[in-house]
Specification:
Helices cover 70% and strands 0% of the residues. The chain is mostly helical. It folds into two domains: 51 residues, Arc Repressor Mutant, subunit A (Orthogonal Bundle), CATH 1.10.10.60; 162 residues, Tetracycline Repressor, domain 2, CATH 1.10.357. Helix 5 packs across helix 6 and helix 5 packs across helix 12. It starts with 9 loop residues before the first helix and ends with a helix.
Length: 220
């Protein structure tokens, strides 16, 4: 044992390595023994901090959603109109594939498994809160006359789910950048919501100020 994870950050280091392994191999393909070997610690130390593999996955879920909720709140606070707020959230959903890739892929690979958690679990509560932010933006846009009336409950779930399979096909450094894919997601989503499409080029622009602002928020 070399003690690389023996300092105050050992709990975070365990979660980071576990997250990367889940992103690369999935939950079923990830083992405590491989995480421990990479960190140079005993499996017992992982058990000491997290107990079970399921609890470590739960910690991954909570860590991921806490960060996404915090960023969503900052995006909504930064932009002044519902169309800009929703565009910011949509761009962020794709930018995570680059700027927080391991956690995003790990979360998306196991989203169906995470959906089986107890209703009162913190992970599910955070997911409901995030979807509530989306719903609030939609409702504000309808109230302001920016958006066509829609079922905000269904639409917010559709928006949340839209990016959850991106890990299966999006490749960082591939033909299309995260900014370009985000632009298409904005075009698809806001194109069907906006009462007037005159602002859509600004909202979808992959090289525009809105995207640059979102990048600053999620990389702060």
């Amino acid at each position: 044992m070399n003690g690389r994870a023996a300092g105050p950050g050992k709990s975070a280091a365990i979660l980071d390595i576990f997250t990367r392994h889940v992103a690369e191999k999935g939950y079923d393909g990830t083992s405590f023994s491989e995480v421990a070997r990479e960190l140079g610690i005993s499996q017992g130390l992982i058990v000491h901090h997290y107990g079970t593999k399921a609890r470590l996955l739960e910690a991954l879920h909570i860590s991921y959603m806490r960060r996404r909720v915090d960023e969503a709140e900052r995006i909504v606070a930064t932009f002044s109109t519902p169309p800009e707020q929703l565009a910011g959230l949509l761009h962020a959903a794709m930018l995570y594939q680059v700027h927080d890739r391991n956690r995003t892929v790990a979360f998306q690979r196991e989203v169906a498994r995470l959906g089986q958690e107890e209703e009162d679990s913190e992970g599910r509560r955070l997911r409901r809160y995030y979807i509530g932010i989306l719903r609030g933006v939609l409702e504000a846009g309808i109230a302001s006359g920016d958006f066509h009336p829609v079922d905000t409950s269904i639409r917010s779930l559709l928006i949340f789910g839209a990016a959850q399979w991106a890990w299966t096909w999006f490749e960082p450094g591939g033909r299309n950048s995260a900014e370009q894919v985000g632009a298409e997601l904005v075009d698809l989503t806001l194109g069907s919501l906006l009462q007037s499409r005159s602002s859509l080029p600004h909202l979808r622009d992959p090289e525009g100020h809105l995207v640059a602002t979102v990048v600053n928020i999620i990389t702060a």
